[in-house]
From TrEMBL:
InterPro entries linked: CobW-likC_sf, CobW-like_C, CobW/HypB/UreG_nucleotide-bd, P-loop_NTPase, Zinc-reg_GTPase_activator
Name of protein: GTP-binding protein
Entries under PANTHER family matching the protein: COBW DOMAIN-CONTAINING PROTEIN, COBW-RELATED
Taxonomic source organism: Neoroseomonas marina
Similarity section: Belongs to the SIMIBI class G3E GTPase family. ZNG1 subfamily.
An example Gene Ontology CC term for this record: cytoplasm
Length: 348
């Protein structure tokens, strides 16, 4: 019996980590290993998956669909070796970076002989943000591919969207992918049974482009042995970076800066995600936002094992220089600290 592999994809900010956390709490997900890929120099998602253990693996920074496809194969081989040594391994979930083109990932899972001897591709689950979905499909080729190649499409943030807009998005997705049911999840809640046991991926019944994409990736992989980085695969205007802060941060400064960023440059913010050590708080606070929408901060139950408690914030931006963002954040944080110090002095 081969081990089923589920590919969890969706554009930046669609809610993959939130949904994954909910899924992993379900009894039927016992024995699941998770492979997480991020685009950028600092990985955070693996710290935000609440059930972090030796079967949760952060693939090297870089995108699965280009620079680290070999890492995916090696990680799957390592998990298979653990299973042979007695570890319980019932399923693998691969959470891709939001910028990932799913075609090369699926081609790898369906063609690598060692992977095929142990694993079977069970299906592709694609998350689509109901708030930003139409604009994302208009501007991001990867998002179109993610939707077209899904076996299940899960709409998130429908509670934040106008019902007419959600209906229009569902109709558009049905045109892009005639074979995938469109489901809805609120705060990541969805029955695992609806996303598992999908019977394997096939191009039959899909729009013709799907078969073309897979064929192109098969040729690309043959010529470049899955290690070639294609500099043109992603928009050259998109870049990712991370900031690390040694000292606890004042929430007032961070919150004010996030609000300003969303209002003034929201169109350039493809994702902001952070794990923060805030002044006066013993537990970490997670933040995340996409374009003009920033979600309320969430305090986690505890710091991830081995974490050094430094604040980490990752960004994926388009046409917005790092130095502008970094200088703005530092300025707001400094102002908040100075205001707090002034308040303390005046209260003496």
């Amino acid at each position: 019996m081969k081990i089923p592999v589920t590919v969890l994809t969706g554009f930046l900010g669609a809610g993959k980590t939130t949904l994954l956390n909910r899924l992993l709490k379900a009894p039927e997900m016992a024995g699941t290993a998770v492979l997480i890929n991020e685009f950028g120099e600092i990985g955070l998602d693996h710290l935000l998956v609440e059930r972090l253990d030796e079967d949760t693996v952060l693939l090297n920074a870089g995108c699965l669909c280009c620079t680290v496809r070999g890492d995916l194969v090696r990680a799957l081989r390592d998990l298979a070796a653990r299973a042979q040594d007695g570890r319980v391994l019932t399923r693998v979930v691969v959470e891709t970076t939001g910028l990932a083109d799913p075609a090369p990932i699926l081609q790898t899972l369906m063609s690598d002989p060692v992977v095929l001897s142990v694993y079977a591709l069970d299906g592709v689950v694609t998350l689509v943000d109901a708030v930003a979905g139409q604009a994302t499909l208009d501007t991001q080729a990867e998002a179109v591919k993610q939707a077209a190649m899904a076996d299940r499409i899960v709409l998130t943030k429908t509670d934040l969207s106008d019902p007419a807009d959600v209906a229009a998005l569902e109709a558009r997705l049905a045109g892009l992918n005639p074979v995938a049911p469109v489901l809805r999840a609120v705060a990541g809640a969805i029955a695992p049974a609806t996303l598992l046991g999908l019977g394997g991926f096939t191009a039959e019944g899909r729009i013709p482009e799907v078969a073309t994409w897979l064929t192109a990736e098969a040729a690309r992989g043959h010529h470049h042995h899955h290690h070639h980085h294609d500099p043109n695969r992603h928009d050259a205007a998109i870049h990712a970076f991370g900031l690390v802060f040694d000292e606890p941060l004042p929430w007032q400064g961070v919150a004010t800066w996030l609000e300003m960023l969303a209002v003034t440059r929201g169109d350039s913010v493809l994702r902001v995600k952070g794990l923060l050590n805030l002044e006066g708080k013993d537990r970490p606070v997670a933040i995340h936002g996409v374009q003009h929408v920033f979600h309320p901060p969430a305090m986690l139950a505890t710091w991830p094992p081995g974490h050094d408690r430094r604040s980490r914030i990752t960004f994926v931006l388009r046409n917005l220089p790092r130095e502008v963002v970094e200088a703005g954040l530092v300025s707001f944080v400094t102002s908040a600290r100075e205001a707090a110090e002034t308040g303390r002095e005046s209260g003496r």
